[in-house]
Amino acid sequence: MKHLRKELWFETKKRRQLINITPELEKSLRESGIKEGLLLCNAMHITASVFINDDEPGLHQDIEEWLEGLAPEKPHSRYRHNVGEDNGDAHLKRTIMGREVVVAVTNGKLDLGPWEQVFYGEFDGMRKKRVLVKIIGE
Amino acid sequence: MKHLRKELWFETKKRRQLINITPELEKSLRESGIKEGLLLCNAMHITASVFINDDEPGLHQDIEEWLEGLAPEKPHSRYRHNVGEDNGDAHLKRTIMGREVVVAVTNGKLDLGPWEQVFYGEFDGMRKKRVLVKIIGE
Amino acid sequence: MKHLRKELWFETKKRRQLINITPELEKSLRESGIKEGLLLCNAMHITASVFINDDEPGLHQDIEEWLEGLAPEKPHSRYRHNVGEDNGDAHLKRTIMGREVVVAVTNGKLDLGPWEQVFYGEFDGMRKKRVLVKIIGE
C-alpha cells in the first residue's frame, strides 16, 4: 500500500471565503503516484470545512446568505461559546457544510463528476489554517 | 489491494425522490470479491446526495418537508444561482443531506447497523444522473 | 493490508448527549498496530451521529439549542415518522450532524488538528446503541 500525507495552508483575507482546492488535490495525487485508492481531504480546524459543490459565484453567494440565515454570526452574544471568542457561528456553519470529503482515485485521477469541485470553506479566517490530504492505495 | 469501481445510473420520475440503493451496493461488493475494506458511495452530481437513514415512508415525507423549509425551491428567483437555472435549492438540500457515505466492509458484507439503509437522494431529477461506487480492500 | 473492526457501546442517561470518544479511538488504533491508513467511525443507528468539533461545554449547549431550532423534538405529532415512534426529530438532527467521520492515520496516530475531537452525538438515547470503528492500512 502506498500513502501520502500533505498539508495545505490558507490565510484568507475575509472572515468567510470559499477557495477551490481541486488543482491542489490533483497535484498531491500526482506526487503520490497512487493509481487506485481513496483520497481523504479534511479541514484540520473546527471552524472550516472541505466540501464539494459547483464553482459558480452566484451559488457561493447563496451559500453565504443561507448559512447566515441558519447560523447568524451576530450578535456574538447569541452563542454561549462566545466567551472570549466570537466564532460560535463558524462552528455551526462548518457543521452544515461538513468537515471532509472522500474522493475515489481511479487510473491516477480524482474520480469526480463533471461539475464536482472541491472547496475549502473558511468561516473564521484572516489567520493561518490547515487542510489535511491523505491518500492511500496502490 | 483489490479495488472495484462502478457507476449506478438513475433517472427519477419526480424532481425530488429517495431511492434505496443498498441492494445495488451489496451486489457491487459481491462482484468485487473484497472481504475487508472500505466502500465509498457518492453522488457524482452536486444536486444529489447519498446518505444513510431509515427506509420508512413517513420519515421520507418528513425529510421532504423539512428540506423545503430549510431551502425552499420557490420562488426560483430567491437564489442568485438561478440565472438560466432553477436548481439553487437542490445544491443546498444536497449540502444538508451530504454527498457521500463510507461504509465498512467486514467478512464480505456491508457492515451496517440493523436499520441503516443507503439512499440516493435526488433533488433535481427527471434526467440521467450517476452515483459512484468505489471499494478498496482485500 | 491490516484491518481492525470494533464496536463501542453507549447507553446515555439523557435523550440527547454528546460524548468525547477520541480516547476510545486512540485505543482502538493502538490495538490495530496500523501506522498508515484510514479510520472510519460511524454511528450504527440512524438517530445518532459521529462528528468532529470542539470539546467546549458552551459550544455543546449552542449545538443543542441550534438543533432544537432546526428540528424541534415537540410536538411529536409534527413528524409523520412519529406513528408509534417519538424520534422523528432525532433522524433529522443526526442528518445535520452527520453519520460518520474518516480520520487519517499517520505514524500510528490519529492525524487530527489541534482542537479536533471526535464525538458520539446521541439524539434518542437512554438505551443501548453502537458505534462502529473500522481501520484499514499497514
Question: Roughly what percent helix of chain A?
Answer: 25-40%
- List the secondary-structure elements of chain A in sequence, H or E: EEHEEHHEEEE
The end-to-end distance of chain A, rounded to whole angstroms, is: 5 Å
What is the assembly state of the chains in this entry?
homotrimer
Main beta-sheet annotation of chain A: 5 strands, antiparallel
CATH homologous superfamily identity of chain A:
YjbQ-like
Give the strand tally of chain A.
8
Q: Could you walk me through the main structural features you see in this protein, from its secondary elements to its overall organization?
A:
3 copies of one chain form a homotrimer. The first copy, chain A, has one domain: Jelly Rolls, CATH 2.60.120. Chain A is built from 3 helices and 8 strands; from the N terminus they run ββαββααββββ. Chain A has helices at residues 22-32, 57-70, 88-97, and strands spanning 2-10, 17-20, 37-43, 48-53, 100-106, 109-110, 117-122, 129-137. A 5-stranded antiparallel β-sheet of chain A has the order 1-8-3-5-6, with helices on one face. A 3-stranded antiparallel β-sheet of chain A has the order 2-7-4. The longest helix of chain A has 14 residues, at 57-70. The A-B interface holds A 1, 36-38, 51-54, 56-59, 61-63, 66, 70, 96-98, 101-104, 106, 111-116, 136-138 and B 1, 3, 5, 38, 40, 42-46, 70-71, 79-83, 88, 91-92, 95-96, 98-100, 102, 130, 132, 134, 136.
